[in-house]
Amino acid sequence: xxxxxxxxxxxxxxxxxxxxxxxxxxxxxxxxxxxxxxxxxxxxxxxxxxxxxxxxxxxxxxxxxxxxxxxxxxxxxxxxxxxxxxxx
Length: 88
Fold this sequence. Notes:
The protein is α+β, with helices and mostly antiparallel strands. The protein contains three helices and four strands; from the N terminus they run αββαββα. Helix 2 (31-40) crosses helix 3 (67-87). The termini are far apart. Mean pLDDT is 82; it is low at 6-17.
């Protein structure tokens, strides 16, 4: 059985654009939380994102640790941040 982070993780190419390591639905994730998580993870990886249609396309580069582990931890962090934001 796949974890939630693994289910969210998608590798795809849109035209000749950047390789997207993570694709998140804009209706499920707050852009402010994504931006904050990227800032918080800046010492662990170079993370870029853009919005296309109904998705946030996120790419990870120069990861300090294993790329897959970094993406999974980023997803967990983002989910926790989203949950904390919704509760408050």
